Structures are given as C-alpha cells and as structure tokens.
Amino acid sequence: MSDGIPDLPARGRWQGTRQIVSYNWPFYAVALGAIAGARWALRRAKGPRWMNNLSAAGSGLAVFWALASVAASWWVYDRSALYRWNWLSELFPQAPQNWANIHCGLDESTPALRALFPGTQSQVFDIFAPHEMTEPAIRRARKLTPAPVVATPADYRALPLPDASLDAVFLFFAAHEIRARCGREALFGELRRVLRPGGCVVLLEHARDGANFAAFGPGFLHFFSREEWRSLANGAGFVIERECAFTPFVRLFVLRAPKGES
C-alpha cells in the first residue's frame, strides 16, 4: 500500500497547493499589489537611496514569503505522505471500533479513515463557529471544497457524545481555528471525556516555529507552538504517547487517555 489507499480517488497534481492558494488568494494579491505600488511610488518620488534600498528589501521579503508559502504547501499537501494515509495504519495495528473525525468544514480525511477502518462505527462533527472563527480563508475553504461526508454540527465545548464512548478521535488542522485559549481547553476536556481508557487523539497541526515563520512569514502567528499543544494535552489528562515532525512544517501528536481511568 505504498502508493496510498486503492479505493480512494487519486488526488490531482498540485491539488493541495491550488487549494491553499485559492483559500488565501487575497493575501497573494495584496502582497503583489503592495510591492508593485511601493516600487512605482519610490521611482516617481526619486527618494533617497536608503529609502529605495529599504523598499527593495521589503519587496524582496514579500516575494520570498509568497513563494515560500506555496513551496511549503506543496511539500505538505502534495509531496509528503500525508494524503496517502498509510501512516495511520502504523498508528493503529488494530482498527478503532468507534471513532470520530472532527473538523471545521474542510474535511479531506473521512473517506480515507473509513477506507482504512472498514466495518467500524464512525461519526463526523463540524465544529465551525462562525462568530469565533472569523478568518476569511476558512469561509472560502468551506465554500470552495464541500465536505465529502455529511457532518453533524457540534459545539466543541459540549460534543454530543456519551462519556467514554470512543476509541479514537481524529483532529486534523482544525483545533488552531479555536483562537481563545479557554476554548481550546474546553475542546481538549471534551476529547478526554468522550474517550475510553486507552483511547487516543490523533492531532495534526502546523507549529508556530522557525520553519513556519520562514515559510509563511507573519502568517505563522495563526498557528500555535508545540508547547501549547503539549500543555493542552497535559492539562486535560492525556499522556503524550508520540510526537514527531510530519515534514518540517507540521507536527503529529498521539495523545492517549490513561488506562484504568474513566
């Protein structure tokens, strides 16, 4: 299965990169417009050399970050093994019998999870909160890439699940959309509540670190540090069973609910 899950349709060439650009196209348009406008204004004004040098440096940095963000998106979403999904098989030698996938409207994982774990019970929840998650990019993503599986709208502070009812929860690139720390704490508390002893959360997130700053510039502030995710996991009572880099830009966490506890 080195080429991915056979039952899933093949992803298009540069599909992930095209999606990221389409969700964030105003950033690229504004950056290129600002560069062109600044250079034109300085040439017309015949400003001092230091000002022209500063403008050139700023324009160069903007061009670099625009190109670097596209390259990083290609690396993560098109070149890496992320969307071949075989890495999940290594995490689950035995399929979880009851699991949930939680997202904010952009769901590209549920069909893969169901193909990987046939015959299991699954639920899909959309925790998008329009009054809290106000980033225009997430709204464009929801509009441009409809979810392939109908999801149940859910409040991340009170997931509609009984206590200790799941073997696994999958949370891919969604938790960072909850911007308030208290909201993230509430979500992790709910994850801990609904997992059975020994159950786990599989969390994927970009990190607020040097690699993402190099790739996305100030946009890396939309992410949170690995220390933040570790703190949330520990605060909710999880054991961090595994943490590793999935490309230089994304971190994978496997959080385990301790056995012998409810």
What's a concise summary of this model?
The protein has 262 residues and is α/β, with parallel strands linked by helices. The protein is built from 9 helices and 7 strands; from the N terminus they run ααααβαβαββαβααββ.
What kind of assembly state do the chains in view correspond to?
single chain
**Number of H/I helices:** 9
Helix content: 40-55%
The succession of helices and strands, N to C, reads HHHHEHEHEEHEHHEE
Provide the low-confidence segments as ranges: none
Structural class: alpha/beta
What does the average pLDDT come to?
89
For the largest beta-sheet, the strand count, sense and barrel status come to:
7 strands, mixed
Q: Widest sheet: strand order?
A: 3-2-1-4-5-7-6
Q: Give me the count of strands.
A: 7
Distance between the termini: 36 Å
The whole-angstrom Rg is 21 Å
Task: Label the overall shape.
Answer: elongated
Which range does the strand content fall in? 15-25%
Please tell me about this protein's structure:
With 262 residues, this protein is α/β, with parallel strands linked by helices. 44% of the residues lie in helices and 18% in strands. It contains nine helices and seven strands; from the N terminus they run ααααβαβαββαβααββ. The chain has a seven-stranded mixed beta sheet with strand order 3-2-1-4-5-7-6. Helix 1 packs across helix 3 (49-79), helix 2 packs antiparallel against helix 3 and helix 3 (49-79) packs across helix 8. It is elongated. 32% of the residues are buried.
